[in-house]
């Protein structure tokens, strides 16, 4: 069993170390991850500049390959140029901080798994609430067990599972729920500051406004201490609007 | 009528100038766009460093605001900190090069419009095939006419229209089609090269493998010289897989 692991927090993050260690119980793990933190880069890919591949060592032992690019870059160059064969499954994480609701759009963690799904590989992204998480053992255990289930049951081509795990010890977890992407969004606030030269600059802050209040959503599930598992795909067509727009007579735009 | 215009090719691109000029026929245009080209940045947002806002002049006249960030950043800071009121409609483009099929995932042009859709604003992204396009007049005309139709008919909240226009004079356009996101993907190839110091580096190249052969898809529509209009949303839940997974007994993962 060949397992590829990536993330967006960077190859030196504790979350990816915990995930790699646990997944070794299932098969041969290769870590290919960004050299530096790439949070919120979404599905960016690097085209204007070249990439480099560096062997990365931890405590003197080979740990994996560091790429000076984005999570999606890591998947692309990792599978095309580093691995000799396609992996059986791809995992991304364990991310420091949840990736639920609108954050799925911005997340590099989810995008690494999505790039795998684009390549028709089964993929799982795993995130843990709290940016200060240090113990990833339960989230890693979930990743391993869910990987076994994915390999057994199969996933539709083009689908990944986006997993969010509360930052709690195992005995405090309320359960595991199959969920949908929530609708909570950010109230972006740009803090205006003045630099040492008297010029203004703006720093993005804000809070997630939690409008989800049903356990069917990823956002509310983790708030209520459940592990949330959401199947995510990359077919962005809005079929409901597509059907409504059949009445629009778009062809008439030509005649205007 | 207040119109916000952004793009991913940068504020100095000819496509955004053509779009801004045409859209002035409909109302008051504000341009807020990346200072430098941001192609393929996807839905990246800037959190680790601050942003700056610069007034940008063309031929001595004020043209708009340049942001040293991504397309999604431009929408966020533009609406929160530059505009005094929410715009009535947002347009992104006109992009040099199509944004169809899998490219919707990577596109900064589409992501600017998607960020507007996240803010519940009607939004249209416009791209023109060919990276060498110089005459954007027909695509700009389509953008204006479609904007009028969107303002008249309304769009579902959270939906944007992704428009692709062949790089052809108006009389050679075959028609206008309502489409769905195609399934064509890239055969990524990383060219391996050696730098002046003897070290390897890798540059992303490749071709879009056109597997779409039905005019119902954006990819095939533009290939056959049609304007393609696809409604796109950001609900990434795979509902088909969601329903299948109800049989997975995920709760049992806890007991393992």
Topology:
The structure is a homodimer of 256-residue chains.
Chain A lengths: L1 E5 L7 H10 L4 E7 L18 E6 L2 E7 L3 H12 L6 E8 L6 H4 L1 H11 L4 E6 L8 H17 L5 E7 L9 E4 L6 E2 L2 E6 L5 E6 L2 E2 L8 H6 L2 E8 L5 H7 L11
Parallel strand pairs in A: 1-2, 1-5, 2-4, 5-6, 6-7, 8-13
Antiparallel strand pairs in A: 3-4, 7-13, 9-12, 10-11
Helix pairs in contact in A: 1-5, 2-4
Oligomer: homodimer
What top-tier CATH class of chain A fits best? Alpha Beta
- pLDDT averaged over residues of chain A: 95
How many domains of chain A? The number is 1
Could you name the CATH homologous superfamily of chain A?
Survival protein SurE-like phosphatase/nucleotidase
Order of helices and strands of chain A: EHEEEHEHHEHEEEEEEHEH
What portion of residues of chain A is helical?
Answer: 25-40%
Strand order within the widest beta sheet of chain A:
3-4-2-1-5-6-7-13-8
Please identify, by name, the CATH architecture of chain A: 3-Layer(aba) Sandwich
What is the count of helical runs of chain A?
A: 7
The chain pair with the largest interface is:
A-B, 80 and 80 residues
